[in-house]
Specification:
Distance between the termini of chain A: 80 Å
Structural class of chain A: alpha/beta
Oligomer: homodimer
Radius of gyration of chain A: 26 Å
CATH class of the largest domain in chain A: Alpha Beta
Shape of chain A: elongated
DNA sequence: TTGTAGGCGTTATCAC
DNA sequence: GTGATAACGCCTACAA
């Protein structure tokens, strides 16, 4: 028998016997569900503490059909935004006694599919995941799961259920317009090669549209590496910038990390930022706030996103009659922050 | 009835009926547990896919007494080290079909206690958590839980069960010795005020011992803020350095973040790093690698730590006869990386 | 206020 | 190779 037997995991029955009552009374006492005399309850709670009894929630859930789980999928934990969002979400969800079941997809739709399936086995009461494209099967599983599905960050073209996010395309377009307004013309866009990453695609589109709307050429597209793009990727591009285009006056990067990398490389080679070349990023990462010059960026607010998501989940699970009327699309605002890396001396 | 009824969540019984067999056969087919004819199995698996049946693992666990969970607690997700460690651990654990149940303590022992209790309700098969002091009750709960307890990162004075980590004190001592070797004498130590954070205390001790061993004074202790210490905290100290001590020639910081902050502030005020003042940090964070100058630091390897932890967990759960002989203390090596911020011109 | 009976969805066990 | 039955530990529903 390869199975580890917990010889004497104390059970509710044990507590009941020690207290001289039935399991039900213990169960009630533990859940502060009115109908227990104060005396009995106190006695029971005393014994519970003494025995360090910890109820088995799996058994409870099986009975109540409420797992107490909210499944959450992010592309990566190793990313301040996702980490912060998850922390915020967790705090709010935990305050109601529920727990987060967390997974990271590594930016892979297939891994996402596997994770969705394995999480669904835990019968979460809701699932929140980043929209970034899903496999057919993922979508089918989510739809059949009978639970609220929340897609986060980017706003999907065809949402499965609820949505909390913003338009990457719009944000990118706004930033590009800002750069144009600042006087840049030969703006390049730096992003990943991997098209599976639809977020990158949205941002690219925003750039392209802004450029075209201003009568500028959007052909300076530099693509390298796979998401998430790193400082190193940016550095490489910076060091070899001439081999891409030699008339660039500004580089808008799909994230702050490569933006920092590009900037460092250019500076090492004597290129002045922002005077010779402007640099902009996306995400408001620490490294762009504290670099010199600091890097202009699109600011997302992961805490806000986490709060909005939490509120939405709790509303949906509240059992309220009004659930049917919960708004399906929730928009979190973005803002553009212009910093030193694009503070061009007027020319 | 406030409870959401999943009207028709398909169950194993449904699959069984559709396949014209009993639940047990479905159960067996699903778990590739030998005794099912190939014909039957294929038929069943076909139906399972068709119906998009997802087994209820809570029910399964109740029966097998194996939850398939490994509980993991870290102080914060918003920290590259912990995030990376968790990702590594997750990947290894997932490959065996188990899942990570993750929580963050926000560096609070009380929050840790609450989390441990709520996780224990899920009957995890093992629990891995950062050692950083525990409440009495936490320790009691962990001991009674009957599952392997792994304390990570720092090595506790009195381990509860297994240990994977390093000695913060030793690492800090080594770095301080290195700084002395580089010619610094009036070395200050910058850390948090909050003593609950034993890691900070260990690092402080290492510094003190190295200084005293070299016949130097360890009185230049700057304490500010609560963990985790931020760039901002460091920046504040840098800006007001004269109000602390005016003869400092080197500042060893409890982490790279404040190290970066101190350095930025000093540089803004015309202090040359490393020539006037050397700066060292702890943790090998990105910001210290890419600052200029780059910041000398103690390098920890979260991936290694995650791997070691995963292997240990899997060994312990393997049901192998040799479990009794598994080593209890696992050490992950640290290294000192000397960078620009302490490359003093010989004097 | 408390207790009894039965079931949640799965698997262990033993019989066929 | 397959099925019937009895758990797993808790909670719902109803009875007292």
């Amino acid at each position: 028998m390869s199975r580890r037997d917990k010889p004497n995991m104390t059970t509710m029955e044990d507590v009941a016997q020690a207290a001289g009552v039935s399991r039900m009374t213990v169960s009630r006492a533990l859940r502060e569900e009115g109908a227990v005399s104060t005396r009995t309850r106190e006695k029971i709670l005393g014994i519970v503490r003494e025995m360090n009894y910890v109820p088995d929630q799996m058994a409870g859930s099986l009975s109540t059909k409420r797992s107490g789980f909210v499944a959450t999928l992010v592309p990566s934990l190793n990313n301040v935004h996702y980490a912060e969002m998850v922390q915020t979400l967790t705090q709010h969800i935990e305050s109601t006694g529920m727990q987060i079941l967390l997974g990271h997809t590594d930016y892979s739709m297939n891994r996402e599919e596997r994770l969705v399936e394995s999480m669904l086995k835990r019968r979460p009461e809701a699932i929140a995941l980043q929209y970034d494209g899903h496999t057919k099967r993922t979508i089918k599983l989510l739809k059949q799961s009978q639970i609220p599905v929340l897609e986060l960050w980017d706003i999907p073209p065809k949402p499965i259920g609820y949505t909390v996010g913003f338009s990457n395309e719009l944000a990118s377009r706004n930033m590009t317009e800002k750069l144009i307004e600042l006087g840049y013309k030969n703006i390049a866009f730096l992003c990943e090669t991997n098209d599976e990453w639809t977020r990158g695609a949205s941002r690219r589109n925003g750039y392209r549209k802004a450029m075209e709307a201003a009568g500028l050429s959007a052909h300076r597209m530099i693509r390298i590496g796979t998401p998430p793009m790193s400082i190193k990727d940016g550095y490489f591009v910076g060091k070899n910038i001439k081999q891409y285009y030699d008339d660039i006056d500004c580089i808008f990067c799909v994230s702050d990390s490569p933006a920092f990398g590009v900037m460092s490389a250019l500076q090492e080679d004597g290129v002045k930022v922002p005077d010779d070349v402007g640099i902009a990023g996306f995400g408001n990462f620490e490294i762009g706030r504290f670099s010199s010059p600091s890097i202009s960026t699109v600011v997302v607010d992961p805490v806000k996103l986490g709060q909005t998501t939490a509120k939405l989940v709790l509303d949906l699970l509240s059992g309220d009659k009004a659930v049917g009327k919960v708004k399906r699309k929730h928009v979190v605002e973005l803002s553009i922050e212009v910093r030193g890396s694009t503070q061009r001396k007027s020319d």
